[in-house]
Design a protein that fits this description.
Elements (H helix, E strand, L loop, with lengths): L1 E5 L22 H17 L4 E7 L7 H17 L3 E8 L6 H9 L2 E6 L5 H6 L9 H13 L5 E6 L7 H10 L4 E5 L14 H17 L7 H4 L19 E4 L4 E3 L10 E2 L5 H7 L21 H4 L4 H8 L9 H31 L1
Parallel strand pairs: 1-2, 1-7, 2-3, 3-4, 4-5, 5-6
Antiparallel strand pairs: 7-8, 8-9
Length: about 350
Amino acid sequence: MIAWLHVTDRCNLRCSYCYLPHVPSDMRHETGVAAIDTLLRSALAHGYGRLKLKYAGGEPLLNFPRVLQWHSYARRVTGEHGLALEGVVLSNGTLLTPEIIASMKANGLKLMISLDGLGREHDRQRPFSDGTGSSEVARRAVELAVQHDLTPNVSVTVTQDSAAGLAELVTWLLARQVPFSLNFHRPCHPNGPAAQPDDTRIVEGMLAAFQAIEAHLPEWNLLGALVDRAHFGSWHNTPCVVGRHYLVFDTGGRIAKCQMDMAHVVTDVSDPDPLASLRDSQSGVQNVAVEDKGECRHCLWRYACAGGCPLVAFWATGQFDRRSPYCSMYRALYPEAIRLEALRLMKNAAASEKRASA
């Protein structure tokens, strides 16, 4: 079971694609404890053996002392009930210090850093609140974490404006043995018109990035990270676990199905079984199975993308059972992603044989 905790709405960046309000609101200590308690109730009620907590914002490092307190509490109570626990801090990296890294390591916390490019691509999308670029600081954060043996996972948000810099970025990350994921920007917004992505610019940038990866094939599997979180290792009929194994808590302890759909509150931390409430709810995003999406039913790739994000489809078309606006890009990129993984496997197999015969 996975939970996303908005530990603060405060942030020192003003990202162009951010969908959250920038208000001076932090999650209170008792709210975080109540969120963990209610998660534990649902996890035990539904037979889960593992709980994953994503500490997010805003910028969660602005409320980091509380994150440490909550995760320490979560470690204790999950341990008492025999549940495995994973925690990850989703950060822009700009406030990272050696002391924070040491605290993360001591408390078993993982780190994800957002980095959209090495220069102007990142700066254009992720400026500081005063308008200055944040790329240099974010880049240093990645290097600092690696230096202190807390290798982050880098989340790259791909837009038509940043696509041209992807090849340079992935080359830089692979040289440092840093894992990453390439995630398409959600172009639509419920309060505005349904913007359509520029397929050509994004596909060209992605293919250039694939060429860069081919020149620096890593040891780890990239399939789940290359094309907007598509899954090729295990076929699936929904694009994510929203409405099934996933809960999102806002700073006040209200619970929604998805962090992109927090306006549709389903329940709160007082609920004895919030997961059951989310599963039963007909409010907000509906995670429709791909077999029930008429446009996707006979597609070769239907169990890789499962039709894409239903919320983005809804913003673009007014229906949850329509295919993603990114459909044409998925179909253009999936064969190349699989080819890359085949090359990686062959390279690693050849290296293993060479070591065995040495």
